[in-house]
Amino acid sequence: MSTELLNISISKTTHSRINELDWNDLPFGRVFSDHMFEMDYIDGKWQNPVIRPFGDLSMSPATSILHYGQTFFEGMKATKSESGEILIFRPEENAKRFNLSAERMCMPEVPVDMFIDALRTLLTVDKNWIPSQEGYSLYIRPFMIAMDPYVGIRPSDTYKFIIFTCPVGAYYSEPVKVKIETYYSRAVEGGTGYAKAGGNYAGSLYPAMKGQQEGFRQLIWTDAKEHKYIEESGTMNVLFVIDGKIITPASSQTILAGITRRSVVDIAKDWGYTVEERKVSVEEVVSAIKEGRLSEAFGAGTAATIAQISAIHYDGTTYELPPVEGREFSNKVLTYLTDYKHGKVEDKFGWIMKI
Ligand SMILES: *Cc1c(COP(=O)(O)O)cnc(C)c1O
To answer: Alpha carbon of 32 to those of 29, 265, 305, 349: distances in Å?
Structure first.
């Protein structure tokens, strides 16, 4: 099947932490599985692929990543079916996007087959960490960092590619109040917005903190030029239901091409909804709210799958949105996608990779 298969050396932990795991207390991103995958890029090629106990990295204080932020990441999920098969949701899409980010950050690509091989092997080693309970999943974090111990701005010659995983609980996300940001920007034309590059998130912390001080859990970013068009939220794309149609900003250089959003759009079309992927102005959304034509607003991303938006703040006014319980499309798509990821509905789109 593949010519890129890695010869991964596996050293297993002698102290598994699986029995200490409290399945009822899994704060997102704080509980780590026993092992991690690690591979080095040296002399122009990937080498030394290993699976080893999850643990610290050691590096020189001069290491490039620590100063200039040459790094990017991915985020995806796996679950276990009732019959115990490991199911990964659309991992090739993450592998492809990983390489888009790599190109933009001047970093080496990881061939898709290699990426998948590393992932499959790691999940097989840590299969006991993959939850099968309703709504639970294994969050997977692949990333790459620049490793040259060198002070100076140029692409590193050496890199590390790592994958670790976190079992995560049912993500009952409370509906969020969001603020449409019209001063700060997350991404600009020609910038790195479409890549999952570390710096994009570092730069968004300060505006997000200001929004939180004003009482808003998340920001909705607008275009950096005019602040007239809606882009996306911090780690989620946004969708609206207006006049019964699903409306969402099209992916672009400044909007990350979310796999969840893509999946929601494909499902909506399959269900016969009209979907418009295009520029969406703030004005259009605000008028639709005022005129009672907006029935749903939500974020879409791997962590929450669907996060309902309960209120939108814009230009000094907070607009309350229709109650979450009555939101037909987003509630239905959340249930469907959750069942889909757990193998409870037919894989009609071919999105599930089984191990
Ligand atoms: C990861 C991310 C998303 C969501 O992408 P998914 O593939 O659906 O998880 C959306 N926006 C930003 C900025 C992100 O980093």
So the answer is: 8, 32, 21, 31
